[in-house]
Amino acid sequence: MYNFKSLVSGVGNLNKTKKYYDDWSEKYDETLKLWNYQAPKKSIKFLKETTNFKPKNILDLACGTGLFGAELKKAYPKSHIYGSDISKKSLKISSEKKIYKKLQIKNFEQLHNYKIKFDLISLIGSMTYCKNFDKLFVNVNKNIKQKGFALFTHRIDLWQQQDFLSILKKHRKSLKIIKISRPLKYLPLNKDFKNKIKIKIVLLQKY
Ligand SMILES: C[S@@+](CC[C@H](N)C(=O)[O-])C[C@H]1O[C@@H](n2cnc3c(N)ncnc32)[C@H](O)[C@@H]1O
User: Fold this and answer.
1) CB-CB contact of 71 with 43 (8 Å)
2) Which CATH number is 126's domain given?
3) pLDDT digits (tens, 9 = 90+) for 56-106
4) CB-based contacts of 89, cutoff 8 Å, min separation 6
5) How far does the centroid of ligand 1 lie from the alpha carbon of residue 63, in Å?
6) Ligand 1 atom closest to Cα of 20?
7) Which ligand 1 atom is the nearest neighbour of the CA of 60?
């Protein structure tokens, strides 16, 4: 049985995280609905308010069961959405939703090899699990189009601990910081997160 406490404190290494999300996959959508998970809708709203572009090809890293993919599809019905995640069972669920053109099991810190370059690369609700930001940024940079956008969310408690702004600044020669949101509610009906742990949304653009 999964321990939701570890959502706050961290699940552990890659294998533990994979198992955690595999075990949770069938109940994940239901649980997140109960907690009123807000990151997907708020990220789309933020993106639409900040840009007026219509992405043709989108890569949704750590796509999980497709909750953000579903919002992308609503916002950009003509786009081709690709997804990757380490949890095979979550990917099975997202594939059943028929949102994604292609899905693959892959760690977002490993280089993804696509023939196309993406107009938008997203990482929603998952930055918590990043162990090596340089590797993630190399992957994003390699797969994003010139003038393409990267859209991330990150928990504010971790943002502060990691000095995430300096990490973003370190990479701004290739990915310019376009906008960072104010703190936003993340899981308002989860007792450990509620008003205590909020997120920021970040939009970057490739030079
Ligand atoms: C909280 S869920 C978010 C899923 C989805 N983006 C959403 O908004 O519902 C976190 C996801 O990150 C995935 N994940 C964790 N570490 C990862 C890694 N290193 N590479 C790829 N996916 C990872 C998990 O398997 C899980 O599906």
Assistant:
1) yes
2) 3.40.50.150
3) 999 999 999 999 999 999 999 999 999 999 999 999 999 999 999 999 999
4) 21, 22, 23, 25, 26
5) 6
6) 25
7) 6
